[in-house]
Amino acid sequence: MAPQPTADSHESSSDQSMSDTSLGSAQKQPIQDTNILPATPATPDKATLSLPDNDLEKARQDGHAAPAPAYCALPAARRRFILGIVTVAGLLGPLAGAIYLPALPVLEREFNVGSTALNATVSVFMVTFAFAVSPPPPDAIGLVPPGLSEAPLFWASLADVQGRRPLYIISLAVYIFANILIASLPKNFGALVFLRLVQAFGSAAVVSMGAGTVADITEPKRRATAMSLFLLGPQCGPIIGPVLGGALAGQTSWSRSAISGLVLWLVVIFMLPETLRCRVGNGEIHSNGSWILLPPRLASDLAPEPRRGPKPPKPTLLAYWRLFSYAPIGIVSVNTAILYSTYFAIAVHLPHALEDVYRWSTTAVGAGYLAVGIALVIGSVIGGRVNDWRRARLVKAAPDGHVEPETRLADQAWGVMLCAAGTIMFGWFVDRSVHAAAVLIATFLTGFGMSWVFIATTAFLSECVPQQAAGAFALGNMLRNPGAAIAAVILPPLVSKMGVAWFFTGLGILDAVVVGGAVILLRIRGPYWREQRKAKAQNAKSGG
Predict the structure, then answer these.
(1) Core-most of 13, 97, 228, 364, by most CB within 10 Å?
(2) CB 438 within 8 A of CB 99
(3) Does position 432 have pLDDT exceeding 90, yes or no?
(4) SS3 (DSSP) at 398
(5) What is the reported pLDDT for 256?
(6) The 3-state secondary structure of 282-299, one letter per residue
(7) Which is more confidently placed, 219 or 149?
(8) CA-CA distance, 433 to 375, in Å (whole number)?
(9) Where is 152: in which H helix or E strand?
């Protein structure tokens, strides 16, 4: 944790230098804040609470410098309450995607459709979640891991105009409406596909908006801790979702697993204040009011103009294309998509394997996802710490204390091999009906290896393009979700023709050869591409 700075310039310098270092765990990294109030130190201590205008004027007349306003004027208890709300809200999107998987065999029987058709509903959810997204708010760059670093384009435009509060209210309403219809309408497959699309559209907003809310109410020096707490919600979705979905689908109608979020929506309506700093500044207009917002309104009042922060810049498609055309970004994005597609193919096939081969109940199938879910978390934590530890050793050994970003990629080889090995093992274990414990161990290796690679990739991107890390993360995620959607659709026919063993053997070889080869290519050519990019940027600057 960086020491408390004494000036704005110190804050920016400290935060930027830290953002260029490892994302060992993506949530452990302070970043440079872009939404602070003009001429306001970003990290005031507890004594620097906002003063009324007459007190500020009196201080000026007395010849004393007025203390700077607090970064956030809301009481600590209310800030913690807001953090709790957005943490639970951040759980909904990943939960909605994962809760569906254990029930796939049940849904095939309910709707009388084949696995290819039903997997299309999974693909619809993944594609909608991917292509309705843009990068996270600038004040959350570097703190959100791949898969969570997104805010829907439609919702983002609304947030820029009306703030975060209406975004929460409307998007959660869309999500809940889709859930209720899924649970109550007659069994119609076309309606299921459409409602899964609506469900993804509604749930996609809250994850990144939660990250932005955390940045609104938490000063930079304490933001990493707050962000790590917030990320417990999105990170637990893939673990809790299958267990909950399997339990509900096994004991009652599968549609019961679609109903969630109504209580949270009411809490948001009546108790979540606006936090967007370009509308309410440091939140002083809410600091002395009741926690219950009566009458509840969609949008909040505006703070006085001098107390508002600046609006964040909007991304453009041209900027994305220029970033993607930078070879390391394109290669890393494709690598991410391939590995995630492999993982998702296992996640989609797992319920069929456990139910058809091992005769597990739907409830037990949901519990079977715990192995890969826990592996994702462990791989992220351990992989990040090892990656940071190796880089620290290299920095210490370097005469000038400088190491190239490509050193981050050395750890990827281990993750790629583990992921490939776990994938091949999964296929053959299921094909030969090896004990179910061996199958779950194989899924653990795949999840651990993929997560290990992702954290090294995130760290590499943060150092390779530190000023455009958010765009790089968004590109990677926009490719990997469609990749997962394609994997879900092609899985049943290919498994039918090739057999489960050879299908997953092919995926494992693809991971080892393509992803492993790309890592080697980046290690060799990465420095050249980076210097070439710097030269182009310098020439453009000189020409301008």
Answers:
(1) 97
(2) no
(3) yes
(4) coil
(5) 54
(6) CCHHHHCCCCCCCCCCCC
(7) 219
(8) 23
(9) strand 151-152
Cβ-count burial of 524 within 10 angstroms (0-12 exposed, 13-18 middle, 19+ buried)?
A: exposed
Give the model's pLDDT for residue 154. Answer: 52
Domains detected in the chain: 24-31+67-314 (1.20.1250.20), 316-544 (1.20.1250.20)
Peptide bond before 295: cis, by omega within 30 degrees of 0? yes
HEC string of 473-518 equals: HHHHHHHHHHHHHHHHHHHHHHHHHHCHHHHHHHHHHHHHHHHHHH
Instruction: Look up residue 127 and give its two tokens.
Output: 């594609």
Q: Which residue has the higher pLDDT, 247 or 295?
A: 295
Kindly list the distances between the CA atom of residue 112 and the CA atoms of 9, 13, 390, 522, 525, in Å, as whole numbers in the listed order.
63, 60, 53, 47, 52
The three-point CA angle 212-213-214 to 5° equals 90
Token reading at 98: 């994962």
Sign of torsion over alpha carbons 461, 462, 463, 468? positive
CA distances from 190 to 184, 186, 263 (A): 15, 11, 29
Q: What average pLDDT score do residues 306-315 get?
A: 64
Rounded CA separation 207/149 (Å): 8
